[in-house]
Amino acid sequence: MRYNYKDLGLVNTKEMFAKANKEGYAVPAFNFNNMEQMLAIVEAAALKGSPVILQCSGGARTYMGRTVVPMLAKAAVDVARDMGSDIPIALHLDHGSSFEQAKDCIEWGFSSVMIDASHHSFEENIAESKKVAEYAHAHGVTVEAELGVLAGIEDEVEAEEHIFTQPHEVEEFVKASGVDSLAISIGTSHGAHKFKPGDDPKLKLDILAEIETKIPGFPIVLHGSSSVPAKFISMIKEFGGEIKDAIGIPDEQLRGAAKSAVAKINVDTDGRLAFTAGIREVFVKNPKEFDPRKYLTPAKNYMRDFYMEKIENVFGSEGAYKKGTK
Q1: What are the catalytic residues?
Q2: Domains of the chain, residue spans
Q3: Distance separating alpha carbons of residues 295 and 306, to the nearest angstrom
Q4: Exposed, middle or buried by CB within 10 Å (0-12, 13-18, 19+), for 121?
């Protein structure tokens, strides 16, 4: 069974990005791996009246199954509408590795795809991105590409060092590839262990500003933008987990970026930490518990509540659309 994203109630990212850039906020793009995480994301967005992108990596899609992912996305739309909210919801492939993978996702209900050919040469990156864009646009699907490389490890993405995006390349890349948004490297990083305590992580906002002058009004994307909340690191340790102390990207820097041309900010690690903290807390406080509903529900709620804070304080997207009710 194949799916068209419109039949699932989903939208592509074109209009939501245009509205975000015009009104000075960024659309939250949250990764999910199961039903509970999907519910946490859509409940947070609906309650805050924020557009949202449900992000699914290749690994997450393999884990859930390509027949399950579009049904969870459809359920997300139905949940939002049942809550009385009209927020637009997109289903996006995060870090697509090939044309074939992007094509398969489009045929199975994704409304947006990323092709990450940033590890290739500039010319090869353009060629691969253009190939995906041409196919996607024929199906009404929007495309994100990446120029520059983020350091860190998260899911199927790994790089040892940053390669900052070169502003003088972006105009040619965007025009030649035909993509709809561009992920750039300005100091964010994948994974939980972005920076050590005592580091002073700063985004290269000067690079961002120069890129804006090269492609004015074009939607920019930031990957690896989790803040790595200390409270969840502490909870995981308190309740028996092992995780290194780390810090992420400061919220105030991300909020500043969201007010500019950054139309989409990706967050994955923060959700994983919140979810894990919730499960560990139940297992330690109630060691006899074996009902999944009793530990997955608190995990979902921690994730939902944290994302509600992020939507309001970091993305600035609260109230962009009609707010729902619980």
Answers
A1: 94
A2: 5-315
A3: 17
A4: exposed
Q: Which residues in the chain belong to E strands, given as ranges?
A: 27-31, 52-57, 89-96, 112-115, 142-147, 152-154, 157-159, 181-184, 220-222, 262-267
Confidence of residue 159 (pLDDT cuts 50, 70, 90): very low
Look at residue 73 and give its three-state secondary structure.
helix
Q: How far apart are CA 298 and CA 279, in angstroms?
A: 7
Which amino acid does the sequence have at 320? A
Residue 194 has pLDDT above 60, yes or no: no
User: Kind and range of the H or E element at 248?
Assistant: none
Question: Backbone dihedral region of 224: left (phi > 0), alpha (psi from -120 to 50 degrees) or beta?
Answer: left
**pTM score, two decimals?**
0.92
Count the Cβ atoms, other than its own, within 10 Å of residue 62: 12
CA separation for the pair 265, 71 (Å, rounded): 24
Tell me which DSSP letter residue 163 carries: B
Residue 190, pLDDT score: 52
- Written as six digits, the tokens of 247 are 């810090």
Task: Let me know if domain 5-315 sits in CATH 3.20.20.70.
Answer: yes
d(CA 73, CA 187): 31
pLDDT in tens, 204-224: 888 999 999 999 999 999 987
Mean pLDDT estimate for the chain:
91
